[in-house]
Amino acid sequence: MRQSALGVYRSPITGEPLSKAGDGSGAIVEIRDLSGNRFPMKDGVIDFTAGAILAGPDNDARRSYDAQAGDMYENAMRWLWQAFNEDEASVRNATLDRLDLRPGHRVLEIGCGSGSDSELIARRLTGGELFVQDISEQMVRLCQKRLDNLPRSDVAVEYSIATACPLPFEDASFDRVFHFGGLNMFSDIGGSLREMARVTKRGGKVLVGDESVGPWLRRSEYGKIVMNNNPLCAAPAPLDKLPENVRDVGLNYVIGSTFYLISFTVDDGPPTIDLDLPHQGARGGTMRTRYFGQLEGVTLEAKQMAIEAAKASQRSLHVWLDEAVREKASQSRMEPPPAPIESRDGDQRTPSKR
Prior knowledge:
Layout: H1 3-6, E1 18-22, E2 28-33, E3 38-42, E4 45-47, H2 56-68, H3 71-83, H4 88-97, E5 106-110, H5 116-124, E6 129-134, H6 137-148, E7 156-161, E8 174-180, H7 189-198, E9 200-211, H8 221-229, E10 246-254, E11 259-266, H9 287-292, H10 300-312, H11 317-334, E12 341-342, E13 348-349
Parallel strand pairs: 4-7, 5-6, 5-8, 6-7, 8-9
Antiparallel strand pairs: 1-2, 2-3, 3-4, 9-11, 10-11, 12-13
Helix pairs in contact: 10-11
């Protein structure tokens, strides 16, 4: 592991920076955070899940991918491309085109699998850095073997075993973040998408995709057959789980319209908006007053009286009501407290407020 790469990682437990620990011979055997948590490193791969109790879906995904790693996984991939009459290389390259990868970029691939996309990304990153991770060690090892055989050596690659929530990386570390295939099985899809946005630089791009039959096909025989064959294809595209600080959101469907691709750029917070820009017209007010200034409901007769009074005064309903409420409230504060009344048993009591 390069020293510069170590600064990109952070402890998924405490969020603290990490340091290397060797075995005395110069080999790095583990990574530690400031609180003493240890993450083993073997043959260039950091395991951020060692000793962790994974959430049910994450643990199930790990077991599934560990079991499939190798011929079973490759056979399933070949079936997918043949069944939908798609050219694998064309689809993968067209997908990565959406990331707009540039030489020198630092890229994170979450859920690298056996490295089919990782190899294509690495070939585009002249002088760049590629961080690949997966929850399955077996998949990470397959990806590592694949990338180690690349003839080019001008791309720095780092490997880790980790969950997608939390991600073991510092804020705003990556120019691009990519994930394809697996999101439907994450234990916290919304949290994972927030994590992807967190580790992406402002203005950087994120591209995620997974199974999901297009909504227009779900009632068709085609859609029903696909969803019956793979229930994950019934999952919706998780647009509702995106964080508020994303921009330029795009949604596309690929591979026979049975996989979605969601792309977005990352910004700071929600979109900017002028909450205090007055509305023109009879109702008046601003977005702020209309949202935060709502009062208890009044009778329909009182509401109509207010509308007519505002119209007669040639002011908006907002201005008329605001002035009327302020005036009445001020008068109430200046009025003396009500005199006590005599109860039936002769005691002096102050009327209760209602």
